Amino acid sequence: MKSEKEKMLNGELFLPHDPELAAERMQAKLLLEEYNSISVREKERSNQLLQEIVGTMGEEARISPPFWCDYGYNIHLGAQFFANVNCVMLDEAPITFGDGVMLGPGVHIYTVNHPMEEAARATLHEYGSPVTIGHNVWIGGGAIINPGIRIEDGAVIASGAVVTKDVSARTLVGGNPARLIRHLDH
Ligand SMILES: CC(=O)SCCNC(=O)CCNC(=O)[C@H](O)C(C)(C)COP(=O)(O)OP(=O)(O)OC[C@H]1O[C@@H](n2cnc3c(N)ncnc32)[C@H](O)[C@@H]1OP(=O)(O)O
């Protein structure tokens, strides 16, 4: 029989209050608590902690605290990744960034959904869908990226956008729900 963690990683319905998953979220919270309270002078310790929190990270990846996520190990940061303050990543499924990605303040990236059907939702099951963000994407402050979204290379997400559909390479999208504003090809 599959564990709840295996179901989570497989994108199937799973129970988050399972003891193994609850312990992993607690471990992530403890690391984040330390990460979010560390002095700005302690760059090395801060970098070490970020390496412990996320699954993988490229050269010079940085996240300005405070930062929150559920598990951490499902997050993969490319080189020169930068997230401004108050970033939230609900990483029940992989969240993968290419190189040179920038996030403005307060960007939220969600991979988790609850069932739409009331009786199924009442069982407290949930399920994850991966979010994939290409190289050199800029996501403006306050944007929300929904589960299962793919944002291709060079795209720009305007501040405050709610991204509900995949975003093509080198396009600017904005609004709620986010719509094409213009192409960025030169
Ligand atoms: C690490 C960090 O990133 S920290 C910095 C954080 N900074 C931010 O988050 C700022 C993000 N910047 C934006 O959202 C800007 O508005 C940009 C980048 C989208 C502006 O891009 P521009 O190409 O200059 O767009 P411009 O101002 O010409 O507007 C084009 C159209 O998009 C609309 N638009 C611009 N910004 C937004 C927005 N945030 N949401 C919805 N629509 C928008 C404009 O109203 C305009 O619409 P119209 O053609 O109907 O008049």
TrEMBL record:
Q: Which GO terms describe its molecular function?
A: acetyltransferase activity; O-acyltransferase activity
Superkingdom of source: Bacteria
The identity of this protein, by name, is Maltose O-acetyltransferase
Keywords of this entry: Repeat, Transferase
A cellular-component GO term for this protein? cytosol
Q: Which Pfam families match?
A: Hexapep, Mac
- UniProt record similarity statement: Belongs to the transferase hexapeptide repeat family.
